[in-house]
Design goal:
Number of strands of chain A: 13
Oligomer: homodimer
Helix content of chain A: 25-40%
Largest interface: A-B, 80 and 80 residues
Number of helices of chain A: 8
Shape of chain A: elongated
Chain lengths: ~250, ~250
């Protein structure tokens, strides 16, 4: 009987891949992934069969992976970050719907939300909402609605896929929506190429967010009403000061 | 000059601790943490000075850790999961406010949201909101308000700290609030003692959620309108089927 792993590699290189993920990669006979992610592990597993397929062929990639498991192999699908956060874990379960006999195991990884937050300080120490700004698979009206409600709920926001070549202005549009409800001085942070070459983090205000350069490798954080900048770091207090502990 | 690490160990044992976290632990001369978390690493670092302090002494624990860094030591504060998600990263930055000269580095970890999601299937593959149900540091009205707005926004919900001995009925209260806006058949999942002894995951509906046993080591997932149960797994599609890819 074949076996399927869906593995989150963490944001960058081997330093952020858990031993559990590493063990699953070693156990796998064939590893599928988006070209960029396969490149991340190519040097670490030169002896493995690695299959890289480009962006937008996700369903086909999952089907190829499933075919191998049905042949009795141990097959892995890798994603950067966590495989369950805008990753392949959902699609793979959908593709495997008619094969309840298969063993499918998702191996979690460090996702860009917490890896980016760590680089910026501690923006996610209180309630937060994670929203993808990509309208490739989600109607823009749904994204707008979620931005408005999350702002109204005073959540810290973590925005994935803030922009791409095909939609250079989505971050600008999102910032304009948030500015309807949040003050322009709301502190924000951006993290780019987390744990990879070109890693960078910087702060700005919500009023300045629309002019920030972002791409598919940027994660954007928008503070809640409680978020502060402390010594250049973005920090959302948990509430200890209200209890008199500070 | 001293140095401070704030380290996320991941949800359970060594299998979920990243090499980056492991390296920071090795580099540290003294490691502080809540008693349970210090026990998780005690056997792995028998040669280290480990300082365990009980729950509710978080500010004191951070101050003790800061004192060591000010003495020139490399001091670490450990948390389970990710240190920036309801962990010590925020409080530590607040406690260190008057010491901008200190090097403070947050090392991210796999948080219960994604580790629990992986065990359950793929509930977080689309936009989600993370809310703690603990009213120890947050007014219950704020929690209620966020639950209502997140439900209105059709976010998947990930609930931390769903219950404790001091507040046995918070999950029940939260479920009642969500039922004002969401159908009782909404699929839910619970993950308990993730990657630890006694690990368990199970599914229920939102209508059944109020009767589920939960404690401080349980993470609760409430599906969006899109979330499905596929072969016993909780799965939120990303939207590929709308694009005709399935």
């Amino acid at each position: 009987m074949g076996k399927l792993f869906i593995i989150g590699l963490g944001p960058g290189g081997a330093l952020d891949t858990t031993p559990r993920a590493e063990a699953a990669l070693r156990e796998s006979q064939v590893i599928f992934g988006y070209t960029t992610y396969i490149h991340l592990i190519r040097d670490r597993f030169p002896e493995k069969e690695l299959v890289a397929t480009p962006m937008t062929t996700e369903a086909q990639r999952c089907r190829l992976c499933l075919e191998r498991a049905l042949l009795g192999q141990t097959a892995a699908m890798v994603c950067s970050g966590d495989a369950g956060v805008y990753g392949m874990a959902g699609l793979m379960h959908q593709i495997c719907r008619n094969h309840p006999e298969l063993s499918i195991q998702v191996i979690p990884g460090v996702t860009a939300a917490t890896a980016g937050a760590a680089l910026l300080g501690a923006p996610l120490t209180h309630d937060f909402a994670v929203i993808s700004l990509s309208d490739a698979l989600t109607p823009w009206e749904t994204i707008e609605r979620r931005l408005r409600l999350a702002a109204e709920g005073d959540f810290v926001l973590c925005l994935y896929n803030p922009a791409s070549k095909a939609r250079p202005d989505t971050l600008k549009r999102a910032a304009a929506i948030l500015l309807e409800r949040l003050p322009p001085e709301t502190p924000c942070g951006l993290a780019e190429n987390i744990s990879r070459e070109g890693e960078a983090v910087w702060l700005c205000t919500l009023g300045e967010l629309e002019t920030q350069k972002a791409n598919m490798f940027t994660t954007v954080f928008v503070g809640s009403s409680q978020t502060q900048v402390i010594n250049g770091r973005l920090v959302t207090p948990r509430g200890y000061e209200q209890r008199g502990a500070l």
